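Posting for a labmate who doesn't have an account.
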Amino acid sequence: MSFDSKGIRALLFDLDGTLIDSQEDIAAASNSLRSSRGLPALSLELVASYIGEGIEALVRKLMPSAEGADLAALVEEFRKYYFDHCVEQTHLYEGVAPTLKSLAGQGYRMGVVTNKPERISIRILELLGARDFFGCVIGGNSCQNKKPHPEPLEEACRRLKVELSSACMIGDSRVDIEAGKNAGIPSLGILGGIGNEALLTAAGPSLILKRFADLEDIFKGAL
């Protein structure tokens, strides 16, 4: 793994597991959905392992027998419940706010690229007081394709008005690293989030960080 911060002007961040710890609220919404269909609750750890590929993929794993119109109805039911309860336990990870403030102060353009729906993502960032750090929020429904397809990263750079080649993807899961690779840009993996650490490492990020706050040292004076 190797990474050179010189030439990086835009930082693209994953949301769940990178900026925010949202496991408990997602698990609560997941088990509310299962309970409404008479199914037993799933553990926090199991639900967390389902996170990262968007609400549709999550609901398919929660309700494996659902398909067609029933699946679409379940997705909408989950979406509505989660929108109303998305920040009951969710919080920014330690070090996120001061690090983002420092990076913004240095002049980096920053965006969020997540597979969570755009409207819910913006709501969470607003309620946690972090929306103003980001020039754009690209959700799982903002483009035709989700991560690991490069399209959301390309759209983020278009909205930030920077060249894709000057961007870096930052996240906690293999999906983020693969998205960066598919877009042809560096990717940084952050440990301690929701994503599986072994899969994150196997995806081959340009660099692995133990703490979000380590970004401040990596990018200090590089712009």
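Reply:
Got it, the structure tokens are right above this. The longest strand covers residues 109-113.
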